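[job 4471] stage=fold_predict status=RUNNING
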Amino acid sequence: MPVPWYDIPRNNAGTLTARLSTDCQLVNTVTTTTVSIMIQNISTLIAGIIIAFVHEWRTSLVALGLLPLMIISGAIQMAFSTGFSDKTDAAYKDSSNLIMEAMVNIRTVSSFGYEGIVAKRYDEKMEEPYRLAVKKGNASGFFFGLSQLVMFTIFGILFYLGALFVRDNPG
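[job 4471] inference complete, writing structure tokens
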């Protein structure tokens, strides 16, 4: 890359380091965790449907009818609980830039006694990511609770209907 490219604030070493760190975590998550969980969930769903239809087809039909509700609530919960937004990434890049500049120029910072000023500026730059993380955490917790409510309500309905089917037709 040409030297002036690094003079642009979004291309300095701190920003690039923060971005590389974030990108590596995202690639690792997508290639390992997400794919394996998806394969496991699909195979479990197929096996569960087959076993359910073999043993009690009426309960299986009700469960299959309620399955979209579970999928939708799980998808909403997953959307709010995965990763951070671009806003927090940008805020973390700003704080990374500040620390990178302070470390590169540590002698100047130390000779003028600016350690406290740098620490205060770093704290100020971390307020926005903290605020966004708390907001995202609250939303994630709410939607996690909602998805659990839907899931256990459906389980309760299925247990109740299963008990009714056994009572009415014990054979």
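[job 4471] summary: The helical segments are 13-55, 57-81, 86-104, 106-111, 115-168.
[job 4471] exit 0
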